[in-house]
Design brief:
single chain, about 325 residues, mainly beta, Jelly Rolls, 3 domains, five-stranded antiparallel β-sheet, about 0% helix, flat
Amino acid sequence: MTSLSFPSNPTNGQQYTDLNGKVWTFDGVKWNISTTQSSRQFTGVKVSLASDLQLVTNETAVSFDTEEFDVGNFFNVSTPTQIVIPRTGYYRVNLVVQTGTEGDGTSYVVRLDRSGVDLFSSELAANQSGKYDNNLLLNYGEILTLYASENNSVGSLVAGTILEIQLIGYTFGGAITPGFEFSGVNAILLSGDVSTTSTPAAITWASGDINYNINANAAGNVYWSNLNPTRFTISTTGYYKLQANVLTGTDGSDDSYVIDLRKNGGTTVESGSLGPLDTLELDETYYFTSTDYLELYVSNTDSVGSISSTDTTFTVTRLGV
């Protein structure tokens, strides 16, 4: 048997080839046998509507008629309204709905249900799209169902409406292959609306706002802590996907709201100006170094207004080092 002689004081991402030709990678805590991307089996499902679906006034579960792919047995044609989670893990849930040309005002209502709990609901007008895109810890056997209705019984969901669910990582220690454990944080502003003034201020997140907070292979460090409740701190240098949704309140004038995503308290990563009842959406990939921290700053040049609770979210997902 050939003994292993790992380098001393390794850095995160450093590789070592043993005498048998096996490549090992240090993940910041321990050495793992390196695996190629192709060895990670894809797990996910995508279903859609091939034709328009007529809606009525009563809420109805949407039956998807097209299975574009299903790796992992999420979908069964005998129960076309249900997506069933085959294994506990972190999943990206991506829903895109498109309403038809009939109807008025906000006569459409769509709702994505997770085993009896609302993940997403929205009132839409005719010829309008609605979208939900978030990372969630879903448990084995949970069921996702899309419901829809139209107040006048004349509208429809049009062909091309999709629901896609993709496994993005297992809980720590639950990966089949090394390096496929999920690392990320998701915050939903449940603690109440945030008032805005002309002075930019970082949103303070409460512990009850944190949906999940797991930093795999980082010696137990987490992204959010109540010691620095405005911050999401990076502990492992690498590539990260940032997703944010911010909904403004009813007060203020056009472009009076300013939303800044800042790094280390001063560097602006992204910025946007919004009016009342307006939404900012962020979905980008960035490279961050260890100890970088991120904050969402909000302000209103009219010194009025607020950021809406429950509709404001922030997500950090580590993609790789």
